[in-house]
Amino acid sequence: MGEVILTMQDIDKSFPGVHALDHVHFDVRRGEVHALMGENGAGKSTLMKVLTGIYTKDLGSIIYEGKEVEFHNTREAQDAGIVIVHQELNMVGDLTVAQNIFIGREFMKGFRIDDRRMIEESKKLFDELHIDIDPSTKMSDLTVGKQQMCEIAKAISHECKVIIFDEPSAALTEKEIEDLFVIIRDLREKQLGIVYISHRMDEIKVITDRVTVMRDGTYVGTLITKDCSKEDIINMMVGRVIYEEPKTKSMCPPDAPVVLRVEHLNAGKMVQDVSFELRRGEILGFSGLMGAGRTETARALFGADPKQSGDIYINGSKVEINSPQDAVNAGIGYLSEDRKRYGLVVQKSVIQNSTMACLEEYISGGFINKKKERDVTEKYIAELATKTPSAEQLVVNLSGGNQQKVVIAKWLAKNCDILIFDEPTRGIDVGAKNEIYKLMSSLAAQGKSIIMISSEMTEILRMSDRIVIMCEGKKTGELGIEEATQELIMDKATRNIA
User: Fold this and answer.
1) Who contacts 382 (Cβ-Cβ below 8 Å, separation ≥6)?
2) Please, are residues 379 and 405 in contact by the beta-carbon 8 Å criterion?
3) Looking at the structure, do residues 218 and 301 belong to the same domain, yes or no?
4) Looking at the structure, do residues 181 and 231 belong to the same domain, yes or no?
5) Are 292 and 470 in contact (CB under 8 A)?
6) What pLDDT is stored for residue 1 in this prediction?
């Protein structure tokens, strides 16, 4: 590691009702990958937003290349050589990949935008980063994982000296994560300072040189990665020991009644003749590589995407699900992998989002029963340990993980018997993950039935009673948790791949 390129000293930042940063210290050296860790709401993203001019600090100083600086917007930070890859995607869906990468700094041909050159330059960038994406593709046509790779490529396209990765691997496959690490190591060799925010402990040990931990908006300490254990970091983050043991036997009785049966479901090339059963009190894991068709299967089942054929039975009776409203009426709730796009209205309050799916239950005589609405919201704030100053807080002001908890609260308030959790812990820290795992297990013990789609193998093995494996739109295997191993799952997850 080289000299210190960036130092943040005594950074303080408050929002209405929240002291987000309390005299925080952080520094970055040239040629290092410095992890910034902490539970959701610890202040990691806020600190980086202060650095890059998204937020204005209340107190403290930022020393960059030996001079005190303060950026008033991201453009000023980018011009100085500091760029950020955000956890939440900031792409424009109706534009092409190339147009998104060069938005605000387009190549011109006379008075017209030179789309051909932007496509050519994007292609060069993708080739350099070993990313297989057509720059002329419309951004909304890409998977969340591919969109994330475009976000990373966009950041790297700037001539930068410090690059901040905020949960860069949350939507990536194992292969894409390996490719990302190749890119990061190359940037480190070029003596860039790299900030890496992630909740994935295994990644931290593999790719970082130092780890700084924050808790509740304060600085806890900094460790040399190679000299510390995973448990050391977790204890600093949450102040308690958390165990992540795989499940060794199903918690669902073998004679539990089938609550959901899907037969020969077809919905485009990503859902081809998919059949499965879900039992009462069971957690059914759906595993596979990115693009295997797991989310597409869930969306077709929920009525969010049209199905071409297939039958759905709930408690033995055939049901027609042609819209999400049909699914909700049938007792199915869906926690989407893209919470901001499909799960939340971020400019509304925690209360409004929590009761959104069952608002009619709180209306009497044309008026909303505010007390009843508040009571159920506060119940789930407490149950899920959601960090919010009040139930009236706008969801946009919550951290990513706490936004995820609000989506879960919405479906718990609706009291659905069948819950589809699509990447339920994406972008959530280890402590919050543990809370959600306990909650899912508790729901299953109460007789709720859960379909859990996850790209994290440890999560699949820890939570599932049974596992359905998909590849390229087809179901390629099914395993009881007693027989499941990472090797067996990967074998079936790549069965259709040439």
Assistant:
1) none
2) no
3) no
4) yes
5) yes
6) 67
**Stretch (H or E) spanning 404:** helix 400-414
How many CB atoms lie under 10 A from the CB of residue 227?
A: 8
CA-wise closest residue to 455 among 482, 497, 421, 405: 421
CA torsion through residues 340, 314, 269, 145, sign: positive
HSE-CB at 438 with a 13 A cutoff on CA atoms is 11
User: Helix/strand/coil (H, E, C) string of 248-310?
Assistant: CCCCCCCCCCEEEEEEEEECCCCCCCEEEEEECCCEEEEECCCCCCHHHHHHHHHCCCCCCEE
- Which domain covers residue 304, as residue numbers? 258-493
Q: Which residues of 476-486 are buried (b: 16+ CB within 10 A; e: fewer)?
A: bbebebeebee
Query: What's the whole-model pTM score?
Result: 0.61
Residue spans of the chain under pLDDT 50:
497-498
Phi-psi region of 392 (alpha: psi -120 to 50; beta: other; left: phi over 0): alpha
Neighbours of 107 (CB within 10 A): 15
Beta strands in 357-428 (DSSP E): 363-364, 367-368, 418-422
User: Helix axis angle, 230-238 relative to 430-445, nearest 10°?
Assistant: 80
Q: Is residue 243 part of a domain?
A: no
Dump pLDDT digits (tens) for 397-427: 887 778 888 998 998 888 889 999 998 887 6
